[in-house]
Design goal:
GO terms for molecular function: acyltransferase activity, transferring groups other than amino-acyl groups. By secondary structure, the protein is α+β, with helices and mostly antiparallel strands. It has five helices and eight strands; from the N terminus they run βαααβββαβαβββ. It is globular.
């Protein structure tokens, strides 16, 4: 019996895209489950956190929002917005459906976001994760990120765990932020084929 081959692609779109709703709902539920007893320390509810920034912050030319689609359904995604340092992109909302973790999917989304940040002229990534997300910490450390906190300290004493990573120089021919024409991969609703799965965290 022959098995079917799943079709995968990265889709650059808006945070309001209905395809993203299941991911946001799952992220909200997981965030609330992990931090319900310490909500005052980590901010408001997950819904409040997700609505904290305007959609324009995650749109070209200054930001991006990407979904990884499998057979037309979103299985993972992530975004970036401009940091207060104009050369730095701040990554947000990197999340994979729970049943598909430990297949390297989050690592692929992270790499795609890094490549898009380079295409949009950024030189550095900054991000934070919560103190009850050890799998995210492992993902970032394993992908070349530097922890901006004491890795030997109790993470619950830090709450928000910051990381940074330098990006390679901008690719020749890529369009910088503010240019009249966006690069093809950053165009809204633009889809690019996803590469093969690799093993890894998340």
């Amino acid at each position: 019996m022959s098995g079917s081959v799943s079709s995968e692609q990265f889709l650059y779109t808006s945070v309001h895209d209905p395809l993203a709703r299941p991911l946001f709902d799952g992220l909200e539920q997981e965030y609330d489950n992990r931090y319900a007893d310490v909500r005052g320390r980590v901010g408001g509810s997950a819904r409040e956190e997700l609505q904290r920034y305007p959609a324009e912050a995650f749109a070209s030319p200054v930001g991006a929002f990407v979904l990884l689609l499998r057979d037309g359904q979103a299985i993972s995604g992530g975004a970036f917005m401009p940091h207060r340092d104009p050369h730095t992109a701040e990554f947000k909302r990197i999340w994979t459906l729970p049943g598909l973790r430990r297949q390297g999917i989050a690592r692929r989304v992270l790499q795609e976001l890094e490549e898009q940040a380079v295409r949009q002229g950024y030189r550095r990534v900054f991000l934070t994760t919560g103190f009850r997300q050890p799998e995210a910490v492992a993902l970032y450390l394993g992908h070349g990120y530097r922890a901006l906190f004491d890795l030997h300290a109790d993470p619950e004493t830090i709450a928000h765990l910051p990381f940074e990573k330098p990006l390679p120089l901008q690719q020749r021919g890529a369009v910088r932020r503010g240019s009249a024409e966006p690069c093809p991969a950053s165009a809204p609703r633009g889809a690019t084929p996803a590469g093969p799965l690799h093993g890894g965290h998340a």
